[in-house]
Amino acid sequence: MTSVLVLNGPNLNLLGTRRPEVYGTTTLADVDRLCRDTAAGLGLDLDFRQTNHEGVLIDWIHEAGDVRDVLGVVLNAGAYTHTSVALHDAIEAVEVPVVEVHISNVHRREVFRHHSYVSAVAAGIVVGFGVEGYALAIRGLPGLAR
Ligand code: DQA
User: Fold this and answer.
1) Rounded distance from Cα 127 to ligand 1 centre (Å)
2) Domains in the chain, please, with CATH?
3) I need a surface site. Which of 25, 35, 57, 87 has the fewest CB within 10 A?
4) Is the pTM of this model over 0.85?
């Protein structure tokens, strides 16, 4: 079955308790359910993961590039978005479309969050819609698919 890979970077395991005024009170388990339901509605399988480690995110992106039945990747890279040239290079190196997602509107926040190393190599970007952004990204993937 064709699948969508949803990857979450550092600190997103704390969703629900970390800065609820910015990220809301929804937990990552809730986001997993939202993504699973959205994917199922499109007839897609879902693989939902979180890591606090940059190299693990990079390995997972390489893996998505190798597995032909992965339609695309939805990536919330957390703070690595703003720091990781390695993540940029990994996304550039694979053919699978990657949609960048941020729960908060990073452009309304601190200046250090305004630059993304992911955006220039992303197939699409969803920013500031809260956790609903994950569902929007999944719905957009079939139109971007390789
Ligand atoms: C985030 C925004 C990043 O700046 C931050 O480091 C995060 C979460 C978001 O989803 O809004 O960890 O990616």
Assistant:
1) 10
2) 3-145 (3.40.50.9100)
3) 25
4) yes
